[in-house]
Description:
By secondary structure, the chain is an alpha/beta fold. About 20% of the residues lie in helices and about 30% in strands.
Amino acid sequence: MEEMKKEVLFGRDLIAKRVEELAAQISRDYRGREPVVVGVMKGAFIFMADLIRRLDIPCVVDFVRLRSYGSSSVSSGRIELTKDVETDVAGRDVLIVEDIVDTGLTLTYLVEVMRARKPASLKVCAFIDKRLRREVPFEADYVGFTMDDGFVIGYGLDFNEQGRFLPDVFIVRDL
Ligand code: IMP
Protein backbone atom coordinates (compact mmCIF):
# COMPACT_ATOMS: atom_id res chain seq x y z
CA MET A 1 0.00 0.00 0.00
CA GLU A 2 1.39 3.38 -0.99
CA GLU A 3 2.03 5.78 1.91
CA MET A 4 -0.43 8.71 1.93
CA LYS A 5 0.95 12.23 2.43
CA LYS A 6 -0.52 13.37 5.72
CA GLU A 7 -0.01 15.76 8.64
CA VAL A 8 -1.36 15.67 12.18
CA LEU A 9 -4.35 17.98 12.52
CA PHE A 10 -5.64 16.92 15.96
CA GLY A 11 -3.16 14.98 18.08
CA ARG A 12 -4.13 12.30 20.59
CA ASP A 13 -3.59 14.51 23.69
CA LEU A 14 -5.71 17.31 22.29
CA ILE A 15 -8.42 14.79 21.33
CA ALA A 16 -8.40 13.25 24.83
CA LYS A 17 -8.76 16.71 26.41
CA ARG A 18 -11.63 17.69 24.12
CA VAL A 19 -13.42 14.35 24.62
CA GLU A 20 -13.14 14.87 28.39
CA GLU A 21 -14.74 18.34 28.06
CA LEU A 22 -17.56 17.04 25.87
CA ALA A 23 -18.23 14.16 28.28
CA ALA A 24 -18.39 16.58 31.22
CA GLN A 25 -20.87 18.77 29.37
CA ILE A 26 -23.01 15.79 28.30
CA SER A 27 -22.95 14.36 31.84
CA ARG A 28 -24.20 17.69 33.20
CA ASP A 29 -26.93 17.97 30.56
CA TYR A 30 -28.19 14.39 31.10
CA ARG A 31 -27.81 14.26 34.89
CA GLY A 32 -30.35 11.84 36.41
CA ARG A 33 -31.13 10.29 33.02
CA GLU A 34 -29.86 7.31 31.05
CA PRO A 35 -29.52 8.23 27.37
CA VAL A 36 -29.42 5.77 24.49
CA VAL A 37 -26.13 6.64 22.79
CA VAL A 38 -26.42 5.71 19.12
CA GLY A 39 -23.11 5.44 17.30
CA VAL A 40 -22.96 5.78 13.53
CA MET A 41 -20.77 3.00 12.16
CA LYS A 42 -18.08 2.74 11.35
CA GLY A 43 -16.45 6.15 11.66
CA ALA A 44 -17.70 7.04 15.15
CA PHE A 45 -16.68 3.87 16.96
CA ILE A 46 -13.44 5.10 18.54
CA PHE A 47 -14.82 8.52 19.43
CA MET A 48 -17.92 6.92 20.96
CA ALA A 49 -15.87 4.38 22.93
CA ASP A 50 -13.73 7.17 24.41
CA LEU A 51 -16.69 9.48 25.02
CA ILE A 52 -18.91 7.04 26.92
CA ARG A 53 -16.02 5.96 29.15
CA ARG A 54 -15.66 9.57 30.26
CA LEU A 55 -19.37 10.04 31.10
CA ASP A 56 -20.33 9.92 34.74
CA ILE A 57 -23.93 9.02 34.01
CA PRO A 58 -25.16 5.58 32.88
CA CYS A 59 -26.03 5.06 29.23
CA VAL A 60 -27.28 2.39 26.84
CA VAL A 61 -25.22 1.78 23.71
CA ASP A 62 -26.54 1.02 20.25
CA PHE A 63 -25.44 1.46 16.64
CA VAL A 64 -26.73 2.33 13.20
CA ARG A 65 -25.08 2.05 9.86
CA LEU A 66 -25.92 4.23 6.88
CA ARG A 67 -25.04 4.00 3.26
CA SER A 68 -25.03 6.88 0.84
CA TYR A 69 -25.20 6.15 -2.85
CA GLY A 70 -22.54 7.39 -5.19
CA SER A 71 -18.81 7.83 -4.66
CA SER A 72 -17.36 7.66 -1.16
CA SER A 73 -16.12 11.25 -1.01
CA VAL A 74 -19.04 12.99 -2.72
CA SER A 75 -22.47 12.67 -1.13
CA SER A 76 -25.25 12.18 -3.63
CA GLY A 77 -27.97 12.83 -1.09
CA ARG A 78 -29.58 9.41 -1.29
CA ILE A 79 -29.11 7.65 2.01
CA GLU A 80 -30.41 4.41 3.46
CA LEU A 81 -30.19 2.74 6.85
CA THR A 82 -28.41 -0.59 6.43
CA LYS A 83 -28.30 -1.40 10.16
CA ASP A 84 -30.91 -0.15 12.62
CA VAL A 85 -30.80 0.21 16.40
CA GLU A 86 -32.02 -2.73 18.45
CA THR A 87 -33.35 -0.50 21.25
CA ASP A 88 -36.89 0.84 21.36
CA VAL A 89 -36.10 4.56 21.50
CA ALA A 90 -39.69 5.75 22.05
CA GLY A 91 -39.75 7.90 25.19
CA ARG A 92 -35.95 7.63 25.61
CA ASP A 93 -33.31 10.33 25.51
CA VAL A 94 -31.36 9.64 22.33
CA LEU A 95 -27.88 10.98 21.68
CA ILE A 96 -26.53 10.29 18.19
CA VAL A 97 -22.74 10.14 17.99
CA GLU A 98 -21.30 10.78 14.53
CA ASP A 99 -17.75 11.18 13.26
CA ILE A 100 -18.14 14.12 10.86
CA VAL A 101 -20.88 16.50 9.74
CA ASP A 102 -19.99 17.42 6.21
CA THR A 103 -22.85 18.22 3.79
CA GLY A 104 -25.30 17.53 6.62
CA LEU A 105 -27.29 15.09 4.49
CA THR A 106 -26.54 11.95 6.53
CA LEU A 107 -27.50 13.43 9.89
CA THR A 108 -30.55 15.19 8.49
CA TYR A 109 -31.77 11.79 7.31
CA LEU A 110 -30.89 9.97 10.54
CA VAL A 111 -32.48 12.62 12.77
CA GLU A 112 -35.66 12.37 10.71
CA VAL A 113 -35.71 8.55 11.09
CA MET A 114 -35.15 8.75 14.86
CA ARG A 115 -37.59 11.61 15.41
CA ALA A 116 -40.38 9.57 13.81
CA ARG A 117 -39.96 7.08 16.67
CA LYS A 118 -40.91 9.68 19.26
CA PRO A 119 -37.89 9.80 21.57
CA ALA A 120 -38.21 11.95 24.72
CA SER A 121 -35.29 14.02 23.38
CA LEU A 122 -32.90 13.81 20.47
CA LYS A 123 -29.46 15.38 20.25
CA VAL A 124 -26.38 14.97 18.08
CA CYS A 125 -22.74 14.90 19.09
CA ALA A 126 -20.25 15.15 16.22
CA PHE A 127 -16.53 14.68 16.58
CA ILE A 128 -15.74 17.05 13.66
CA ASP A 129 -17.88 19.72 12.06
CA LYS A 130 -16.99 20.89 8.54
CA ARG A 131 -19.23 23.92 8.70
CA LEU A 132 -18.43 25.41 5.32
CA ARG A 133 -19.43 22.31 3.39
CA ARG A 134 -23.11 22.18 4.28
CA GLU A 135 -25.61 21.49 1.51
CA VAL A 136 -28.50 21.45 3.97
CA PRO A 137 -28.63 23.45 7.20
CA PHE A 138 -27.66 21.24 10.13
CA GLU A 139 -26.43 22.14 13.63
CA ALA A 140 -25.00 19.49 15.95
CA ASP A 141 -25.67 20.00 19.67
CA TYR A 142 -22.14 19.01 20.71
CA VAL A 143 -19.07 19.42 18.50
CA GLY A 144 -15.54 18.23 19.20
CA PHE A 145 -13.60 20.16 16.58
CA THR A 146 -14.40 22.34 13.61
CA MET A 147 -12.46 22.49 10.35
CA ASP A 148 -13.03 24.35 7.10
CA ASP A 149 -12.08 21.96 4.35
CA GLY A 150 -9.84 19.01 3.59
CA PHE A 151 -10.09 15.28 4.16
CA VAL A 152 -9.11 13.66 7.44
CA ILE A 153 -8.30 10.12 8.53
CA GLY A 154 -7.46 8.45 11.84
CA TYR A 155 -9.27 8.01 15.18
CA GLY A 156 -11.92 5.92 13.42
CA LEU A 157 -12.06 7.97 10.22
CA ASP A 158 -10.99 6.35 6.98
CA PHE A 159 -10.21 6.95 3.36
CA ASN A 160 -11.32 3.80 1.50
CA GLU A 161 -10.89 1.84 4.75
CA GLN A 162 -7.35 3.12 5.27
CA GLY A 163 -6.22 4.93 8.38
CA ARG A 164 -9.03 4.14 10.84
CA PHE A 165 -6.63 2.64 13.35
CA LEU A 166 -4.38 5.71 13.63
CA PRO A 167 -4.53 7.27 17.13
CA ASP A 168 -4.31 10.87 15.87
CA VAL A 169 -6.37 12.72 13.24
CA PHE A 170 -4.41 13.49 10.08
CA ILE A 171 -5.22 15.75 7.19
CA VAL A 172 -4.53 13.98 3.92
CA ARG A 173 -2.73 15.85 1.15
CA ASP A 174 -2.96 15.22 -2.61
CA LEU A 175 -5.96 12.89 -2.58
P1 IMP B 1 -22.52 14.16 5.11
O1 IMP B 1 -22.60 15.13 6.26
O2 IMP B 1 -23.81 13.49 4.78
O3 IMP B 1 -21.88 14.77 3.90
O4 IMP B 1 -21.61 12.92 5.45
C1 IMP B 1 -20.76 12.84 6.45
C2 IMP B 1 -20.04 11.52 6.30
O5 IMP B 1 -19.06 11.59 5.27
C3 IMP B 1 -19.28 11.24 7.55
O6 IMP B 1 -20.05 10.46 8.43
C4 IMP B 1 -18.06 10.52 7.07
O7 IMP B 1 -18.31 9.13 7.04
C5 IMP B 1 -17.85 11.01 5.68
N1 IMP B 1 -16.78 12.02 5.65
C6 IMP B 1 -16.91 13.33 5.36
N2 IMP B 1 -15.72 13.96 5.43
C7 IMP B 1 -14.82 13.02 5.79
C8 IMP B 1 -13.41 13.06 6.06
O8 IMP B 1 -12.74 14.11 5.98
N3 IMP B 1 -12.83 11.89 6.42
C9 IMP B 1 -13.52 10.72 6.55
N4 IMP B 1 -14.84 10.64 6.31
C10 IMP B 1 -15.48 11.78 5.93
